[in-house]
Amino acid sequence: MGLLDGKVAIITGAGNGLGEAYAKLFAREGAAVVVNDLGGARDGSGADRSAAQKVVDAIVAEGGRAVANGDDVSTVAGGENILKTALDAFGRVDILVCNAGILRDRSFANTSEEDWDAVIKVHLKGTYCCALPVWKWMKENGGGSMVLTSSTSGLYGNFGQTNYGAAKAGIYGMVRVMAIEGRKYNIRVMGLAPGAYTRMTSDLPGRQGREPDPLSLPENVAPGVLFMVSDLAAEHSGKILGVSARGVREIKMVETEGFAPGRPYTAQEVAENAAKVFFDVPENVHRLGAAAR
């Protein structure tokens, strides 16, 4: 018996990399899978719809159930057609993993409007376009689970990825709000910050020209995502997990003690109470403040 027996999963960007690994593992665990992939290059250019079909063929060859979909996640029509593919083939949808993405890395000063719009459209708008029709269907049909892919680039920051980081931080916001709204409909939403060696990360500093660590391959990350979409994670809606070959950890936003005098205050008082406001304050912050006066 598999963890996903009888369930139907939609996975976007599943023609290679992490999405492919999720699709194959979910199928082995009993799910029928819609493998979505436009088949574009890493920067979003071009299209090759055979990418999704190759994954489907591999799943079917192992005795699983899957269908291919080549719609563009960044359009409302594309998102609706992806849902329609699931309903036409399998009659329902229980799981959505929004995984599709592109990269157009530039330092902020060198980011063009085209680079900005393309990345925001695929990641942030694409998550909206795919999640909304599935959300509406789940709302009327007993609920389900969604995993929306964020990134440490958005949660912590990373040089040269302002557009990507902004989109991924926006997805974090979607997770937090959708988890609240989904409670009454039994729709569980979690956020994912994955870490793996894929075509998206193969040229990061320190990786060029090196063979990948076998532990960093997508198939070693997929079990963490399987946990997230399964009933094993039923009590964890709204949480963000960092999932890599090293393991799984929760990433959360926290607050300091803060400076809260309960009365009008001055900017100088904020500086004088910096140790309460910030997590990590240099020991000389008050001396520097005094010198500035």
UniProtKB/TrEMBL annotation:
InterPro entries: NAD(P)-bd_dom_sf, Peroxisomal_Beta-Oxidation, Sc_DH/Rdtase_CS, SDR_fam
Keywords: Oxidoreductase
Signal sequence, renumbered to the chain: none
Coiled-coil portions: none
Any one Gene Ontology molecular-function term assigned to this protein's record: oxidoreductase activity
Record Gene3D superfamilies: NAD(P)-binding Rossmann-like Domain
Recorded superkingdom: Bacteria
Transmembrane feature ranges: none
Entry similarity comment: Belongs to the short-chain dehydrogenases/reductases (SDR) family.
Name under which the protein is recorded: Short-chain dehydrogenase
